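Lecture notes, unit on protein representations.

Consider one protein chain, 263 amino acids long.
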Amino acid sequence: MRIRSAVAVVSLATAVSASVVPAAAQAAARVPIGGSTFSNVAVNGGKDIVLGTTNRKTVTLTWTVTDPEGVAATWAFLWHGPNTDDADGHLPQYPPAGTCTVSPTDPTVSACAMSFEVDPRRDLHRNSLAGTWNMLIEAQDATDDWTDDDVAATAKIKRNAKVTVNASPEPVKKGRTITVTGKLTRANWETHTYAGYRGQSVKLQFRKKGSSTYTTVKTVTTGSGGALRTTVKATKDGYYRYVFAGTGTTGPSTAAGDFVDVR
């Protein structure tokens, strides 16, 4: 394997072999026909991993290993960068063993999973780490053959965003102008603070009193410091909110509705 560390080889192979039951008896009766194959690969259940400045999240990797010799050890981790040799990020730094369950109907198939915690202060020191990460899987069969897949799956790790809203004046006469302000910020992993996110499209939505459905009124672009500002005509009682859909590096955010009483 191109990036297997000494720590990974010693700690993971030992730990995983204890958690996986190799199909040694079945393997002895078969002629080797190839290496391991990986399927049913998923990162965080297919959901984006969105992190702020302090919140920690547990991420689960799942995969299935099929090998005619039976699986003796397997593990996985996430990496970021142009390739594994030049990766600028690994999650986790010291991958725990994958815990696997051998199929009761086919000893060559093992369903595996591993979980680890991501701490933005500890693990994400640069904003450039936001975006697409790759999942690497490796397996060792009962005859000590190794198979790895550098990009068995991909996942998005994003910076958390926050959007606020304030509609005024309250109350307001029907037909008068309502000014709706707000601010869009996102987590800065380098300073551990939230900073304004400029030049982003944000939807202004309205829900009339008694309804459960919001409709989009217009789209507003954030200005300096992530500022939002627009105007609408007062027509009926209801709630205004800003909705940010997110980007490839930043998660979505929806403000709580701000009620305006129209008289």
